[in-house]
Each structure stands twice: as C-alpha cells, then as structure tokens.
Amino acid sequence: QKEVEQNSGPLSVPEGAIASLNCTYSDRGSQSFFWYRQYSGKSPELIMFIYSNGDKEDGRFTAQLNKASQYVSLLIRDSQPSDSATYLCAVNNYGQNFVFGPGTRLSVLP
Amino acid sequence: GAVVSQHPSRVICKSGTSVKIECRSLDFQATTMFWYRQFPKQSLMLMATSNEGSKATYEQGVEKDKFLINHASLTLSTLTVTSAHPEDSSFYICSASLRGVSADTQYFGPGTRLTVL
To answer: What is the mean pLDDT of residues B110-115?
Structure first.
C-alpha cells in the first residue's frame, strides 16, 4: 500500500524564522510531488509542485526533493502568522491516484 | 491558475432528504475528478474517483448507493448524498485533475459544508 508520511505536528516557529516541513513516501516509482496549504475550515490550495531532484524556489517557499531517500520537504522562509495552517504533502504517479499525507499543522507565533 | 468551483458552499437539510453538490472545472477540462470528505480536525478522506462517462470508483467503506456520483462532462461532476442522516454532516471537497505533459496536478474546489438536522 502506497503511503505518505509527514512529521507530526503541531510545529511552532516564531515569526521570521524558517519553517521546515518534511514528507516521506513509500512508492519509489512516484514521479510528482505537491505541497498544499489548508487553512482551518477551508479546502486545500496548491502551493507548489516538484518533479526533479533538488530544490525549487517560489517566493518564500522552497521545495526540496530527494528521490533516492524518498523524501520531500517544504521550507518557508521569513514565516508569517498568516502561514499558520495545515500543510499537506501529496505524491502522484502519472495517470494514477494522488496519495496525500495526514498533514502537519504549522503555527507561526507573532 | 486552474479554478474549480463547487456549489452550494453550505447546505442545511433535514434527515432523510437528498442533497446534490456540483463541482466544475472552470477553465480546463479535467481528466479525473475526486470527491473527498473531511471531518473536523481530521485528514482528507478520499471517497471516490470519477472519470467522464465512466462509473465512479469508490473507496472501501464508501456506500455507492448512498453517495451517487455523476460525471456528465469533462468539466462537471456531481455528488448526491441520498437519504442524508446527521452522521453525513461533514465538509465535502471536490478536486479536478489537470493533465500536463509529464504530470497531473490536482486542484481543489472551495468545499461544501453539509449539515443534516
């Protein structure tokens, strides 16, 4: 059974710090990796995706992928209270269903 | 970006009635649409996967006769909760998959909050 695991939260960081969210996956054939943010009472919204090993940066967000270690992470620089949310990692093989992790709740403290 | 809409955003109904929720991909054709349910402070739970013109594939434990899914076109899927009961009260979220050259990307609708009295 394909599994996606995320570090258990809640994760608390002070405003301005770097928040690091981690995700591991079991299916070595996984090809694409996604990070979603879900605010309380709202649906998930896509933050970014990554397909290739290495880093991908988008504003304050950096996704890091290491397929050999089956590991993907999301770094949030200069964390803001508005970043407080649950972050979902999702993994996909082209043409197959997405597998979501359970999410990590992040709290950014003013 | 790709936009997915859901209607209604909130519905309150009496026990025993049926409720229909619509999910539309507004600016792209979706190869696949998904229906999720989420209870407070819990993870997303995939209910079913639907492809246009095909019968939906339901996850284990999800009653297909209770949660009717119709995927009429590449931009519209509907979920009907039949004979709703209070335990069906939940946050129902649809998503649509946009097929790219080498990867699919899933975009979520805003969700429908169902309360069954």
So the answer is: 98
Element (H, E) at A4: strand A4-6
**Which residues of chain A neighbour B44 with C-beta distances below 8 Å?**
44, 88, 100
- Collect all residues of chain B within an 8 Å Cβ-Cβ radius of residue A93: none
pLDDT at residue A7, as a whole number: 85
**Amino acid identity, position A43:** S
- Label residue A102 exposed, middle or buried (CB < 10 Å: 0-12, 13-18, 19+): middle
What per-residue confidence (pLDDT) applies to B31? Answer: 79
Give the strand pairing for B10-13 and A85-92. unpaired
pLDDT tens digit sequence for A22-72: 999 999 989 999 999 999 999 999 999 999 999 999 999 999 999 999 999
| A47, containing H or E segment | strand A45-50
Distance in Å, alpha carbon of A78 to nearest chain B alpha carbon: 25
Q: Please check whether residue A10 touches B, CB under 8 A.
A: no
Whether B49 and chain A come into contact, CB under 8 Å, resolves to yes
Distance CA A93, CA A34 (A): 12
The pairing of beta strand A85-92 with beta strand A98-100: antiparallel
Give residue A96's pLDDT: 75
Question: pLDDT exceeding 70 applies to what percent of chain A?
Answer: 99
Alpha-carbon distance of A89 to A26, in angstroms, equals 13
Q: Name the residue among A46, A92, A102 with its Cβ closest to that of B104.
A: A92
